[in-house]
Specification:
Elements: H1 2-72, H2 76-104, H3 115-171, E1 175-176, E2 179-180
Antiparallel strand pairs: 1-2
Length: 181
């Protein structure tokens, strides 16, 4: 009796140790996957930043060329060309947006997956959605902060202009009592 209960306790202890070890390995695997995804995200962000900088430099060069061309032909025809180019530019921005959204949208092929693979795929999609929600939240907070800073700076500018206008009325040169000061 005593031997059986002791054997049972030892078996439970071994099973518990195995479970703990399995959980540790799963946790380590999750951390490794998370680190890989973070690394991929960082490289994507770096590439995106580099691409945007290159686009910005190219756009500036194009704008400089357009300005030079506009100065060379300051006629109504040049104005019409400028208006047409702006309309085309909006279209390209839309195309860029659809391209980016197409890149982000992944095809969902789940017909050939078994139950375990479906659960894994669902978990992966949930984590991806969670990451997107975190990025969305961060961007919203950044936008709020920027709006606040803009309103703060606008208030400073208006206060500065008010002070400037009152100083000009009192201390500047002007006619006072029929005589120039």
């Amino acid at each position: 009796m005593h031997f059986e209960s002791r054997q049972k306790e030892e078996d439970e202890l071994v099973a518990l140790k195995l479970r703990i070890e399995r959980r540790r390995s799963e946790r380590a695997e999750q951390l490794r996957i998370r680190a890989e995804r973070e690394k991929e995200r960082q490289t994507r962000m770096t590439e995106e930043k580099l691409r945007k900088e290159e686009e910005e430099a190219r756009r500036r060069a194009e704008e400089d060329a357009k300005k030079k061309k506009a100065f060379s032909n300051m006629s109504f025809g040049g104005y019409l060309q400028k208006v047409e180019k702006k309309a085309g530019k909006k279209l390209t921005e839309r195309e860029k947006k659809t391209k980016i959204l197409k890149e982000r949208r992944r095809p969902l092929n789940i017909d050939h997956l078994n139950q375990e693979k479906l659960a894994e795929k669902a978990k992966e999609l949930w984590q991806w959605m969670y990451q997107l929600q975190m990025e969305k939240f961060d961007l919203k907070e950044k936008l709020k902060k920027q709006k606040y800073e803009i309103s703060l700076l606008r208030n400073r500018v208006s206060d500065h202009q008010k002070v400037k206008s009152t100083k000009g009325a009192r201390g500047g040169k002007g006619k006072m009592g029929g005589q120039w000061k």
